[in-house]
Specification:
The complex is a heterodimer.
Chain A: H1 2-38, H2 62-65, H3 70-79, H4 99-113, H5 115-120
Helix pairs in contact in A: 1-4, 3-4
Chain B: H1 2-19, H2 24-33, H3 47-51, H4 61-64, H5 67-75, E1 91-92, E2 109-110, H6 125-136, H7 142-146, H8 158-168, E3 176-178, E4 181-182, H9 192-195, H10 198-206, H11 224-237
Antiparallel strand pairs in B: 1-2, 3-4
The chains are: A mainly alpha, B mainly alpha.
Chain lengths: 125, 246
Amino acid sequence: MRLIKLFFAVAALAFITTPAIQAEEAYLNYKSYCMQCHGMHGKGDGVNVPAMNVLPRDHNDNKYMMTRTNTEIYNAIKFGGQSVNKSIKMPAWGDTFTEEELHQLVGHIRTLCCESEIIRGVNFK
Amino acid sequence: MNRFILVALLALTVSPALVSAGDTGTDILENSCSSCHDLKGPAPQTIHALWKRDAPDLFYAGNKFQREWLIEWLQKPVRIRPAGVNYLRTINSTPINQDVSKKGRKYDVLWGEVLKPLKHVTLNKDNAEAVADALMQLTPNNDLTAEMALDDAQDVDLDSGELLIDKVYGCLSCHQIEPGYGGYTGAELYTAGKRLQAEYMLSYIKRPKNWDPKIWMPNGNVKPDDLQKIANYLILLSKEDFNASN
């Protein structure tokens, strides 16, 4: 009986901590790769911005980001800006991230732009 | 027979290290450089490990650098990456009182050590030559450079090269093609042609991950022709005199 309880406790713990670990990984990846252009807080104000003739997307811009689907964000990261009719200044990161990391990054960007919609359970497609 | 082959293989792999064991260059590398630079490899395999990097990895220096440049640089070390080797440590969030009158937009800024001149050991000519020789022996990635060859028949001038770097592949966002012109987080490109071996440039641009698995330079999916043009452009660019206008 005690063993069964222990099993459930471990399972519950794993259930709670896994998304937290994934979120941390996505945050770290965002900070490591995206921050240089999209900025420390994802406001499109990265340190490289003064050198750019096309400004990076402000991921905090709820109004604009709500017009994008998750698939579009995923494609923009994996295949670059050009794949979603945006600038080539957004490079393709498909060779850098695994599929799992790409999906986690999409999730992270959603937390930056659309937290209240996530809580409401909006389907981002 | 098997034992003989094993001994022969061991001798082959160990011998370069033995030959240079008594050299001044290797001693200096071990005593003065190894505390910051990775001389053994492999490159960081996780993002956590990457952020712990204090200085560029040198374990494949012999595949990467040009000896003459190394000798010159070791006597007069200057910063190559405007945002430092690890930009997470050198970027600060948009300052509240940032002057936006010029650019009309706020952005993150560099701060701390990276704004001061580079702190690095300076060597005299003899020691610089010895260290450069020792570094040139570190060639674990010969297989990567061997598959690359520079096609210097490619027709490229400064304008068409800049077009590739800026408009076609967007390298300019992170790299500078003249002092102060370009992004901060990448290494300067105006010295790349004399700093790096052509085969290294070709191989690294083609797939940075092969050299540094977690590095923040993306694979630009550069077409083979353009790859050759970019390498030729970087060599051409490095012959420009950037101090002339100052």
